[in-house]
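Listing S7. Sequence submitted for prediction.
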Amino acid sequence: MSNNKKPALRLFFVGMIVLAATELFVRVFLTSPSQQIFDPETGFRYVPHATIFRSKEGGATIHLNGLGLNDDEITHKPEKFQIVALGDSITEAFQVPADVNYTSVAERLNRKLDIINMGRSAAGPLSYPIVLDRIRKIVQPTYIVVQLSPYDVEDLLRPNARVTQDTKTGKIVQVKLQSTQKNLLKQAVRPIIRHSALATYLMRRWSPLVKEVIENFDALGGIKAHAKAPAEKVKEKHQAAMRLAYVLEVLKRTAPVVVLNVPSLDYFQGRRAQISKLSHDERKVFREAARMANVPFIDTSSTLKKVYLETGQPPHGFANHRIGVGHLNPAGHQAVGKSLVSFFDNTLFPNTQP
């Protein structure tokens, strides 16, 4: 071997050692390799029986069941009322231990409930009929909970949704999701992040930065940037409400539906909290959709604010991230679980109430 090749080879081996050490560090202290499988309809789904660990919020270790859900294995329990909970990362709840999330809290508060946690991060209402249809052979729900969060209006208006409306009534008769370039990118990089915790961590760190750059470019006069007129905003909100109402109507074909709204809050000194501007605007859309579909609406904002009023601790956020910002912490899940049980106590067990 020539002397010129030795430094390059030595540098290669040093680089490989550093890379391996970094990979080990990330696996132990930060996150696990991605446990996701590309899904052409929903973007991705989790590997059955995967173990999930994320340090950004909470630092909980989660073990998924055979369907890739954050729950126990689904079994038939004739003595209990089977409830399906559809939602995003609030329902998925990877930030807290599995027995602390709001579906588990509700089950403990009322032992006659068997709530199947079908939450998945980044999921939106338009994908819920697809998700439910896939397990209809093994699940016979008494009720379906549709948990809604900030940015679900944005999801309802996603550009890859192909909407078909009745030409006479204007009522939506079909919504179909099409694959996007983002999904194709996920499919391309999935083999790498499936086996590397470092690649997974870097992808999660870079994605928000790329999104922020794009948004800033648009704000400075990029090709997508334009100020929306009030009439355009009203039209968008009405379209979002119609799409959500369509989703709720589709889900109602399987079982009765209830909307569970979990908003973000702004916290202030003096134990004062108020619903954020975004959640305040979105709540109007969610309420309108629930009214159009004739389904009950649970607003958890009062219950969440009460936690802060009584304890001084925001029900959102974690000490290893930001207090008051982000996902529900244990106190937040406890509050939402209580709100959900209160609804079912009055709906399924009205004669047992004092």
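Caption to Listing S7: primary sequence and predicted structure tokens for the chain studied. The chain has one domain: 30-352. DSSP finds eleven helices and 15 strands in the chain.
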